[in-house]
Every structure is written in structure tokens, then in C-alpha cells.
Amino acid sequence: MSFLCYKGFLLVGRQEVRCTEHGNWSSVLPFCKQADCGKPVAVANSVNETNVTTYGSFVRYSCNAGYRLVGEPVSFCFLNEKWSPTPICTIRDCGPLEVPDSGSATVSATTFGSSEIYWCNKGYNLVGNQLRTCLQNGTWSGDKPSCIPKDCGRLFDPANGKVFFNDTTFGAKAVFSCQEGYVMSGTDLVTCMANGSFQDCSIADCGNLTAPDHGTLNMNSTV
């Protein structure tokens, strides 16, 4: 006598049993049990949905926020009571960020939840987001900032003199000169410094004037 189980069931015991000369069966009668894969495989950083674990059932996986599913999202229970290969969930990577010109950045990682902090070199101001974070969709928050040189502001001609400059930002230089017949006290060259001010703007001095013979002089300043 041979025994067969329906699809989805496994035979427990011998497939063939015979009646012996002693009037009994050659072995214990087998039985059919439903194939069951048991608890689904746990996938790190994911959740799964299933109600049954028997043959033909399936479990669906989905990754937590900030993670990306690699592989098939569904695992099936086979007749051998094994689950088909399960996916994995990998953390999303936002990739490297560009560092602004005349600046630098501090970052420990480029994956979900990581942050990058921007800094500007001495003499520059940061414009834009100083802090950017890797979001759950795999992109960085905000936009790339920029570093612009500090501006020391416009310089004005001193009395009886001129100032010449092409730029007023960090590192720029300005040259003072006096009109013919006047002498400058101090240096005639000033530089826009990292703190956003010109180096000692008051030093451009075209000197004291004397009243002409038989006349008077009205003067407020020599700069």
C-alpha cells in the first residue's frame, strides 16, 4: 500500500506499508502534515506583513525610513518548509557634497541622518545653509552655501587728496595720495582686513596748512 499527500502537505512515515504474514502492518501508518515554514526571516531595519506561514503563503517586507530595499520584497513558503531568499535593507547614502570655494566642511558620514557643517576661511562670510542633513529620501537638505569675501565698505577722498582702489573686499588694497604741495603723514597704503574693516583708515593725512601772508585759513581736518 502506498501513501501520497495532497499538494502542500508532507508525508510523515513510510510511503509504502504492507500487510505481513502475521496479520499486521509492516510499519506504523504514515500521516500527512501541512508544510509550514515557521516564523519569517527577520530582516534588519525592516517590517514584514504575514498572517500565515504554511506552504504557498508569503511575507512582504518594507524598509524603515531612510533605508532602501535590495532584492525581492516578497518571500514565499516552499514545500521544503523553507522561505525563498529575503531582501536586505541598506541605509540610504546622499553621496559627497561639494565644498564651497574659500571654505571647508566637517562631516562624519554621508548616510541617512548624517550632517555636514560648512565653514568659511578667514575674511569670508557664509551665505546659505551652514548645516545640511542627509534625508530619508537620499538627498541633502537645503542648498550648497557659498563663501563671499567680507566688504570693508567704500573709502572717501581725504581733504586735499585722493584715494584709489578697485575693490573694497577682504585683501583689497587702497592707495592714498595728496595734491601737489601737500605732504602725507603715515602710510599711503591700507588693506581690507579679515574683520571687515580697513587697516587704520585714519592714517591718510595730507598735513597741516599754514595761513598765507596777510590772510586766514579755515580748515576742519587734514584727512
UniProtKB/TrEMBL annotation:
Domain of life: Eukaryota
Residue ranges of coiled coil: none
InterPro entries according to UniProt: SEZ6_CSMD_C4BPB_Regulators, Sushi/SCR/CCP_sf, Sushi_SCR_CCP_dom
Annotated Sushi domain residues: 1-34, 35-91, 92-149
A Pfam family the protein falls into: Sushi
Keywords on record: Disulfide bond, Repeat, Signal, Sushi
Record-annotated disulphide pairs: 5-32, 120-147
Name of the molecule in the record: Sushi domain-containing protein
Species of the source: Dreissena polymorpha (Zebra mussel)
